Amino acid sequence: MSGTVMSKANKLEMIKLTPEMATELLEHNTHNRPISDMHVHRIAGQIIAEKWRFNGDTIKLADTGDVLDGQHRCWAVIEAKKSVETIIVRGIERDAFTTIDTVRRSRTGGDTIALSGTARYRNQIASALQWLLRWQSGKIENWNSPENRIENSDIEKAYAEHPQIIRAVERAAGLRPLANVGIVAFIYYILTNRNPELAERMMETLEEPAGVGVSDPFYRLRVYFTADRRQRKEPLTTICLAIKAANSAHKGLKIGGLSWKNQGKTPEAFPKLEV
Fold first, then answer.
1. What pLDDT score does 105 carry?
2. Directed axis angle between helix 181-194 and helix 122-137, to 10°?
3. How many helices, marked H, and strands, marked E, lie in the chain?
């Protein structure tokens, strides 16, 4: 698909940007901002995985031939060795570079959920899906590494595949004063898929521990959440302790506390869910 639309000052052209064409554009690029290799790799990864979609963004060329906006996409096409559809705008004044991307806000996972038709709890749903994707891919232990970034396209696909995550978030929303809703919803969701009764028992204990013994694993999990609420709980530790609590509860064990020693000479491995 290709076409050209002429305006008074600029020329807009819909093209299939090939690696060869991207190389030619960059060869004319004499002045631009430094390249972020991480950003290039991220875009290239999306192109290779066929997650990159035409979204209306343009590659802007100055009247001098410089690439004012789009050099990372050009480099990504070269790295991926695959073509993508895009729009090129030619003939922009070189001085206009200072106005490019100065007011744009990055689209969040919550925005993606909202565009899929769900506005309520959209950020919490996106968070729960991100943790679910990390869990499924085996990357949860290195969740904050740049190379393990969850893209909006991944969230959109996961949302379609896991519609019941909405119920999990709604169930966890009542615990907002106690814990991170997205993380609790993720834990509740994976537990529900393995042992619904155990999942409900966890939520009921977190909501109201009256009548539950102090050595109950889920009671100890609630103690973890209530301890020093002013201090933000580290996500991976929270997930780890929840898994430990679920494993112990499943086995009918009584415990004195929950801990995860992942530091020091003999760090403890991340636990497996044995439910």
1. 58
2. 50
3. 11, 5
Look at residue 35 in the predicted model and tell me its pLDDT. Answer: 78
| Contact residues for 67 (Cβ-Cβ < 8 A; gap 6+) | 25, 26, 28, 29, 32, 59, 60, 61, 74
Report the alpha-carbon angle 33-91-60, nearest 5: 40
Place of tokens 């991944």: 154
**Cα separation, 49 vs 45, whole angstroms:** 6
Q: Is the pLDDT of residue 168 over 80?
A: yes
Q: Is residue 204 a contact partner of residue 196, using CB atoms and an 8 Å limit?
A: no
| Cα three-residue angle 194-195-198, rounded to 5 degrees | 140
| Average pLDDT, integer, range 147-171 | 93
What is the rounded CA–CA span in Å between residue 108 and residue 112?
7
Backbone angles phi, psi at 78, to 5 degrees: -65, -45
Structure tokens at 241: 């302790």
Q: How crowded is residue 9: how many other Cβ atoms within 10 Å of its Cβ?
A: 10
Q: Is the pLDDT of residue 103 over 70?
A: no
Residue 155, φ and ψ in degrees, nearest 5: -65, -40
